[in-house]
Amino acid sequence: xxxxKWYSITVCxxxxxxxxxxxxxxxxxxxxxxxxxxxxxxxxxxxxxPPDVVDVEICESSRLLPNKWCPKRIIESFEVGTEPxxxxxxxxxxxxxxxxxxxxxxxxxxxxxxxENKEFPESQAPTAVxxxxxxxxxxxTLIIYGLMGLFDDARFIRRENGTxxxxxxxxxxxxxxxRKAGANALRAFAWSTGxxxxxxxxxxxxxxxxxxxxxxxxxxxxxxxxxxxxAAKVINGCGLKLIFDYLNNCEVQSGVNAYSPFxxxxxxxxxxxxxxxxxxxxxxxxxAFDALAGLIVMHSFGNEMKDRAAIELFxxxxxxxxxxxxxxxxxxxxxxxxxRVPWDPVTENYSxxxxxxxxxxxxxxxEAFGEAEKFKAWRNVHGxxxxxxxGSEHHQAVTWLARKPPAFNIxxxxxxxxxxxxxxxxxxxxxxxNTKQVRPSPEQWAATVKATMERxxxxxxxxxxxxLDNEACQCATFRAMKKAVDESV
Length: 489
Fold this sequence. Notes:
The protein is an alpha/beta fold. It is 24% helix and 23% strand.
């Protein structure tokens, strides 16, 4: 076959087929048309296309994506898919230390009872100041929340896995609500002998050590006094003065003393009125006072100490407590139920025996500290609040105790509805067997406050709720009491 025409084709010098341009050594070669190569050189294969790349700003030291605190950044190229996706964790936001309230989490305000030094990222550091804790006001008239069973109230103090603990948050929340309603003080017993006892005497929050089935008077539990102080700090931090009852006369009653350390002990003491127990009572008082040192506390001899044996008990315990700790008389309280005496329509007064609290004042207290001092201490009168008619506890108390100096100097008086069960509250009541005990309503308390303060300004007022778990009911009463006080001052 004859081909007349030649074609000059560029081919790979080695394989003599079409070259990979730029990769094969090339030459020109003449081919007749049927012989022109159509395949591409496989001796010198074309390398793969270069990968796609992306320029990324990175932290110079960590080589990760920078955050706003990375000190130096650079631009670097990465093959697509290999560029960093995580943010630098080496450089972090500067931190600052702040003292914050353990309850609110805000900056402390000088009244916060518990706080902590805490480290924050600079942008997250709190700037607001705690508005929960406030100073205890120096009010002349006290509006007292009678939470006598505080140290027996499982909402706030309970035994968990064998260890006693104080629920500061729960106590703070509750007291803050009561304070916002108008209360400025809180009264509590040192311990309570009532309430449920799922673990028998182990369920009793007590200062004294329990050995078997009897307490050891004079031997103290490690947990009691720190919890006492912490509870008092919470109360003060929420703006309330603590009124602390060292003793409770109700404990003497046979139906209540099953959990009394002074009736069930290994020292053969038969109640705190037993002279054999005076030293143990005084020892506890000194220990408790020291635990409360530096806090805003009114020290109360005891709740309803109306037994005449209280006079000698006071002489041998509370008098030396005041002497040894140099306690101001203005921070002391002793009183309770007035001894009921008949109304004399001729003299328009009550006549009858002198009360135990007056015998204490005019006896061991005045003997030890002088007449002027006895009028500085507070007295507490119970069974009041609902009725002001002639013959009622309240009328007797106001008639006796509202006489003004210089004719008669009685000092500050607390009128309490502790023991008052004839009120008409719709929400504050409890059944004792077949008897319904009802506290005064907000309206009754408002009328009582106004009527009392019209007679004299040396009165303060205490509400002891029966419906302990009905906070709204309690707050309504304190709002009415506070409004009446403000309108009467």
